[in-house]
Specification:
This protein is 23% helix and 42% strand. It has 96 residues and is an alpha+beta fold. It has one domain: 2-Layer Sandwich (Alpha-Beta Plaits). The strands form 2 sheets. A 4-stranded antiparallel β-sheet has the order 1-2-6-3. It has a two-stranded antiparallel sheet with strand order 4-5. The longest helix is centred in the middle third of the chain and has 12 residues. The model has no long low-confidence stretch (mean pLDDT 93).
Length: 96
């Protein structure tokens, strides 16, 4: 099972990384906090102090078209916010 799917790089998460040393990841729905902690420490070589997780439900999407109303649901995902030990950082932009 691949625990970490992708990092969340948004304006809000970038501010959290700069001020509070917190980073966000989309993780596997079956992963628990201990698995997330070990995966981040192994992949980025940092020390994780705290892990918070949340399950995001898919949002309903409605579109009005010529053929009628199109209804769908966006994908569900699990998000983890990882707090690192002071002094540790993760650079997501080094691989670009």
């Amino acid at each position: 099972m691949n625990v970490l799917i992708k990092p969340i790089i948004t304006e809000k998460m970038t501010q959290g990384a700069e001020k509070l040393n917190r980073y966000g990841f989309v993780v596997d729905k079956r992963a628990n906090k201990l698995q997330i902690k070990s995966a981040v420490e192994k992949m980025y070589g940092v020390t994780v102090k705290d892990v918070n997780t949340m399950n995001n439900a898919g949002k309903w999407r409605l579109r009005y078209t010529r053929q009628g109303m199109q209804v769908g649901v966006a994908n569900r995902y699990k998000k983890a916010v990882v707090t690192l030990k002071s002094g540790d950082t993760i650079d997501f932009y080094s691989n670009l």
